[in-house]
Design a protein that fits this description.
Jelly Rolls; three-stranded antiparallel beta sheet; 8 strands
Length: 131
């Protein structure tokens, strides 16, 4: 079972909590137990699991990334090399277990779409594997 979740980003860099939208897709498909595979088909975006309780965590992650990968001295003509590097650091796919119809995440965890070169219209591909 595969589907596409459209994602519209509004900032140059932002994290969007996708957990409710992914859970909705699991509910629609009726998967009780299995695996949820997420894939981001973009070279300047990514997906991650991180804290969903304190928004300062995301602010701090973005600040840390700008410190780790500043926009300086790159040859790529589009000028978005830091976005490509940041996407590679996080990765473009995740697997999350599904148990009793719910994403099996820790109490403070959420699944985030990571935008590093927005704003743009993007996609998250979701594949559900029941077992």
């Amino acid at each position: 079972m595969s589907s596409t979740i459209p994602v519209t980003t509004h900032k140059k860099e932002e994290f969007i909590n996708m957990t409710p939208r992914i859970q909705k897709e699991i509910n629609v498909q009726g998967v009780q137990n299995g695996l949820c595979h997420l894939f981001i088909p973009h070279t300047t975006a990514a997906v991650t699991i991180n804290e969903n309780a304190d928004p300062d965590v995301i602010t701090d992650i973005l600040h840390g990334l700008s410190t780790m990968v500043p926009n300086q001295g790159f040859k790529h003509r589009e000028g978005n090399s830091p976005a490509h590097i940041r996407s590679s650091l996080f990765g473009v796919s995740l697997n999350v277990p599904i148990h009793n119809g719910e994403l099996k995440l820790g109490i403070w965890q959420g699944v985030y779409f990571c935008e590093f070169d927005g704003p743009r219209d993007r996609q998250m591909w979701i594949s559900l594997f029941p077992f």
